[in-house]
Amino acid sequence: MNKLIKKWDIISAVVIIVVCLLILYIGKAKTENPTAKIYVDSKCVYTIVLNDVKKNYQLEPIKNVFVEVKKGKIRFINSDCKDKLCVKSGWLSKNNDTAACLPKKVVISVSSGSSDFDVMTY
Amino acid sequence: MKGNKKIISALAIALAVLLFISFIVYDYFNGKNTFEKKSFVMATVATYKLQGFNSEEVYKQISDTVNDAENKLISKYKPTSEIFALNKNGSVILDEKVVDWLKTALDVCNKSQGAFDITVGSLTDFWNIGGENPQIPNNTQLKELLSKTDYRKIKINANKASVGNMKIDLGAVGKGIACDIAKNCLDNSSQKKAIIAYGGSVLLWSKNNSKFKVGVRDPFGSVNDCFGVVYLPCGFVSTSGDYERVSVINGKKYHHIINPKTGFPTENNLKSVTVFCDSGLLSDALSTACFVLGKDDGIKLLKKYNAKGIFITNKKEVYIDGELMKDFKITDSDNKVIPYE
Fold this sequence. Notes:
The complex is a heterodimer. Chain A is α+β, with helices and mostly antiparallel strands. Chain A is 24% helix and 36% strand. Chain A is built from two helices and eight strands; from the N terminus they run H-E-E-E-E-E-H-E-E-E. Chain A has helices spanning 7-31, 85-88; strands at 35-40, 43-49, 57-62, 65-70, 73-79, 98-101, 106-111, 119-120. Chain A is elongated and about 80 Å long. Chain B is α+β, with helices and mostly antiparallel strands. Chain B is built from ten helices and 17 strands. Chain B has helices at 2-29, 55-74, 82-89, 96-111, 121-127, 139-147, 174-187, 280-293, 295-304, 322-325; strands at residues 34-41, 44-52, 91-93, 155-157, 160-162, 191-198, 201-206, 212-217, 226-232, 235-241, 246-249, 252-255, 270-277, 308-313, 317-321, 328-330, 336-340. In chain B, helix 7 (174-187) packs antiparallel against helix 8 (280-293). Chain B is globular. Chain B starts with a helix and ends with a strand. At the A-B interface, helix 1, strand 6, strand 7 and strand 8 of A face helix 1, strand 1, strand 2, strand 8 and strand 10 of B. Strand 8 of chain A pairs parallel with strand 8 of chain B.
């Protein structure tokens, strides 16, 4: 008598399930890839997946404020604000890393799935 | 047989799709997806992280309510604001929310014996630390400015406030107030969990009393350096530090936390103070008061409000409330951690 379910039927089923789970896993892994957002006065003007950066480049989200992007990190490189606290913040690469140029109302923040903490004191 | 194969394949695909959908649905119904947004309010960065249904709508409601409060109630610069009117006219009938805020702030002024003073605005405006034109008052200017700095001259009778020739500045508690406003909105919303920060004031909120991992900034490092993590329940956290706003005048650094009694930026051995308590306004006021008072008097003040603190000195000593110590993990061993009772 032929079996209702054969060995290859089970293998096919398992392969299909594994492929779907892999797709899910890869999708989730992508969202945990550090992503930088640049806000100008509350509006997000750039979203950059940092590990996908292949070539270094610079942006000018607002006049005279310059941002440098490299693989895995981002920073303010120059601003015509007086105190340059934004530039002094240095490279941002981990979840919750943030730098702001308050006079120009520009913020860069990095988020990813994992972090040592939910929020940091100022 | 071929039919059976098709059935098995179809079942496998259906099972896989069902698994996939169940992950999505599980995430959605547990509100695991986080809505994140940054904006500018009260001259600082506002950070919103919300989990739950319709997070974007809730964010908009909070943002609008806080902006409204700033424009109509709190701001000392905007002509539409009640505090502006009070400072201009000397005496005015106030919204009961503003009266409550003033009374709470004045209580801290009183209990800190003036280390925290909401009439310090004349001094902070003159110094303009972090602004375009920072300057140091000479002796004559200092005397004049100190004569306009005295919270005891504020009188509140029912909803009427009188300030004489004082100027009220709620800048030291505005961000804490914004956190209180955010909490009220969240309490009436469908959100599950939220972290909202206005500059140095943070609201930790959840429907089911989750605990939060809060990184404590290393005041000797850069803005994203952390020296320890403390687990906190829902509540409010505010930090005052000498690194937040600084100006260099004649080659010397001056920070923005003015001692209302001397008229000069506070000089003691503290680098930063972080306060955790159940009110945004209080956490904001207390962090400033404690910074001015110093560690020993600051600890005494916190006990009056059942608040908990972390005091970091210039020598990298970290004095932390004993109850917070249990849930504190240091990540930078450069600092010496000392619990206090």
